[in-house]
Amino acid sequence: MTNADLWGLLTARRRTHGADPLLTYVTGDERMELSAISTENGAAKVAGALADEFLLDPGARIAVHLPWHWQRSLWIGGIAAIGGQCDPFGDPASADLVVCTSEDAESLASTATGDVVVVSLHPFGLTVPGSVPNGCIDASVVVRMQPDGFAARGRFTTDVPDVGATAERTVVVCADQRNADSWTWALPAPLVTAGSIIMCADADAAEAIAEQERATRIVVL
Questions:
Q1: pLDDT tens digits along 67-110
Q2: What domains are defined for the chain?
Q3: Are residues 184 and 163 in contact, defined by beta-carbon separation less than 8 angstroms?
Q4: Which of 7, 16, 67, 165 could form a disulfide with 81 if both were Cys (CB 3.0 to 4.6 A apart)?
């Protein structure tokens, strides 16, 4: 177990290896690569929205209902920057904010006591197709207007379980979205070890993706 300051590690990675790939998401014909710079920029925008639009303070509980996707990583980073508590698939009734996809928004909003933010899984983070359910907020509308930088609200640390991560480029296959290790791999693990990951959900494609991405390791969750 490692006690890690996620935002501090992310900003440090940006300073030392900013242009190198940190997170890559591959599914079908879709490929999205985020460097440390773009990951920090995206997480900073999330943090700005959490702090300045939703007025969340350090310690706020945020129920995150997002699949194995690069957006999950950005929200983990943004939550860490404000000193919030990321509650994977947490109870919306006891959360200060719920973050989800349009697929789950209506059911989660029915019991949520705080705001419900709907995240688009579009490759370029565009607005949610169509419209979000009544009472919900399209994340892209409030996130994209935020600055690319964020000054962390205090030093927030979190325990990162040892998942055998190394400084290698690793294909991480996650078919079970709720797998606890997937939350560690989504951002903490590559930051703690100075490695990088390729996120995919198809175990059958893992070897081909590893060859394509020049990855030296495959982890199946």
A1: 999 999 999 999 999 999 999 999 999 999 999 999 999 999 99
A2: 2-220 (3.40.50.12780)
A3: yes
A4: 7
